[in-house]
Amino acid sequence: MADLSTGESLYCMEKGEMDPFVDMILNVSPFIGLLQLFNRLPLTRLLYKMVSSQKGLKTWLETVDIVAQKAEKREKMGNDRPDFMTMIWAENDDRESWTRDKIINFAQLLFFAGSETSATTLSVVMFHLLTTPHAYKRLTEELRTIESDEEITISRLATMEYLTACIDEGMRMRPVVAAVIPRVGPRGGGMVDGHYIPEGTTVGVPQWATHHMDSNFFEANSYLPERWLKSSANDPRFAADQKGACQPFAKGPRNCLGKGFAYGMMRMFLSKLIWHFDIELKPEDRDWDVKPSFTSVVFWAKPKMHVKLTPVQR
User: Family per UniProt (predicted)?
Assistant: First the structure.
């Protein structure tokens, strides 16, 4: 994500360790939650001064500054790199309209919304696959119909229905944005499910609760990728499923702009991993999804998950 948004990789894989900047991004999540409170509840703005010297605010400001520096460096590289900035500028006739602040804001959006979110979903999907043998077996069989690594492409993976179903079910089990995604009542107010919403009122749907309601999903607390297959329309288990209740990328014109990219990245990661390796979850992490360290304010702070990888012999 760093390379695609600012033209500079963090080289975590090459170094074999987490870059300090990634840790900073993870550490500011609780403070982002506080910022939401400050914006919505006027009285809590008084608390802003009280926490202004605390670690959360300092880390947030440092992180924003680092992203700004990286974005400015990317701007000087021109339009020849195969990344997000080049694609955006190619679609905009007026290159000059992209001011310094606009470039920085866009880079910040990519960093904060497009990195840890996908990483969390991939961890959740992998955990549930490794604790749901039938799902892991079926996905492995689907992916290993691919004959060579070179054939693992974004376009090929998009046709693999069970792969996408596994990702969708993972996002249902643990929606990556733990906070309520806000929407504002329209001019003149409006009706939602028979309830009047006054103009300017902030409302939202708690995704976790919605995704885990038995009235919305059959065995809502079970990982069942089959519910997302086209054939599920003929499966009596899922006949009453309200699939529209699961909107991990939000809904409407303000939904996640990186949805397509996220699907492509997650499909590629899972496919490469499962095509090349047999995977086992270490016994000490069988309860990974309910460990006390799995906490959240806006995004999930997930505990480490340990697996054993065995190269596939071909």
Answer: Belongs to the cytochrome P450 family.
Average pLDDT over residues 238-263: 90
Residue 281 near residue 307, CB atoms below 8 Å:
yes
- Domains observed in the chain: 1-114 (no CATH), 122-314 (1.10.630.10)
How is residue 303 written in tokens? 């505990």
Binding residues: 256
Distances (CA, A) of 185 to 188, 190, 303: 8, 7, 37
Contacts of 300 (CB under 8 A, 6+ apart): 120, 174, 176, 178, 294
Q: Is the dihedral of CA 227, 280, 221, 219 positive or negative?
A: positive
- Check residue 291 and report its DSSP letter: -
Tell me the binding residues for heme: 256
pTM: 0.84
Q: 160 CB contacts (<8 Å, ≥6 apart)?
A: 142, 143, 267, 271
